[in-house]
Amino acid sequence: MNIYLLRHGETESNNKKVYYGSLDSSLNEKGIEQIKKAKEYLKNIKFDKVYISNSKRAKQTANIIIEHNKDFIIDNNINEMDLGIFEGKTYKELEKLYPLEWKCWSEDWKEYAPPKGESYVDFYARVKKFIQSIEKLDLENVLIITHGGVIRSIYAYILGENLDLFWKFASKNGDVSLIKYEYGNWFVDFIVHAE
Asked: Which top EC class is named for this enzyme in its record (predicted)?
């Protein structure tokens, strides 16, 4: 089975380099262009199923990629990590506004949950649940339109459930990755940058 992972296009929140997971943000002009390039790359693939997160940016990305068949499956398990009170803030703002919480998060990024947010361990658990449901499918081509944190968590899962691998991969806006599930094994086939 071929599973194509597509990160949504750039948003103004990406451009401003703020932390945002559950905040909704629209694609900007650059983001739209990134997804048009991804569409060209994916144009000859017939997708059996298309999964998207519940965010506006993922929906906008899906509407550019798939013009005719809008039969998307929205799955909250592939929403980006909820960063609670950290949402909409830059690295420097977090250090200044929430020094104690920022210190706790920096020292224990897996287990610590920002107030009103979720821990990485909890976030990873829902992404894992989703990708394990994909393993059970008997399809040829699946498209998953989601977020950078979700994609890096999928890599961590398929490469042996090593959560530290989260930081070992980039996932840029508009990137297309192909991962494959064959004979009970996962592997990364390729990663293509949109720019």
From this structure: hydrolase
